[in-house]
Design brief:
InterPro entries: CFAP61. With 207 residues, this protein is α/β, with parallel strands linked by helices. Helices cover 40% and strands 19% of the residues. It has two domains: 1-119, no CATH class; 122-184, no CATH class. Helix 2 links the parallel strand 2 and strand 3.
Length: 207
């Protein structure tokens, strides 16, 4: 059972998503008509058909019956039960970087799927990949492999004692934050000896 909602796919909604997410990297949005796009609002699959080729047929038929060229999924907490095989077929869209903006960050992840993506098969990579440490390099690497459209990495482990504090798309801001923290720590260490010397000088004058 697949339920698609077209009422949300208006020009205003699509324009808002386009400003928050890098949709132009994957789709020619200027040539996309809102009436040919829809959002997945509900999807349930019989476990018997939860295989790659069965899911492809199901989603192709959904596009045909609804007369849609592209479908979107807004991944929020309520979509936690979306079948994993469906997410594997869909393409995650990278959020746009915001350097200075008072606009609230979107509280959802965005996935899309069209006929081209259903016909193209991703290269499945089952090799174990372990990324250790929370740094600009590690976050940038994860950002690179998780948002690729040609490969599907099935065994990625991220190990960090500090925890994941920021969205994965904010690794540039994280790098700047780490540089500022390092600089502040260096300045603090440089100031400590001077304070000690001043204390020794005052004690000698008192004597």
């Amino acid at each position: 059972l697949v339920v698609l909602e077209r009422s949300s796919s208006n020009a205003e909604k699509l324009g808002s998503m386009r400003s928050d997410y890098d949709l132009d990297r994957y789709l020619e949005m200027d040539k996309q008509r809102p009436r040919n796009q829809a959002f997945i609002s509900f999807i349930v699959m019989n476990p018997k058909f939860s295989k790659n080729h069965h899911t492809r047929i199901l989603l192709k038929e959904a596009l045909r019956l609804y007369d849609k060229s592209t479908i979107f999924l807004l991944a929020t907490k309520k979509h936690a039960e979306v079948p994993r095989i469906v997410l594997d077929l869909m393409v995650p869209v990278r959020p746009r970087h915001r350097f200075t903006s008072s606009k609230k960050e979107p509280s959802f992840g965005l996935f899309f799927l069209n006929r081209k993506q259903l016909n193209d098969r991703k290269v499945v990579v089952n090799s174990r990949i372990v990324v250790h440490g929370y740094s600009a390099a590690s976050i940038g690497f994860l950002d690179r492999i998780l948002f690729t459209t040609s490969h599907s990495f099935k065994n990625v482990t991220f190990v960090t004692p500090e925890g994941l504090r920021l969205p994965i798309s904010d690794f540039k801001e994280l790098s700047q934050e780490l540089e500022q923290t390092t600089l502040a720590e260096q300045q603090r260490q440089q100031q400590q000896p001077s304070k000690k010397d001043n204390t020794d000088t005052i004690e000698e004058e008192g004597r």
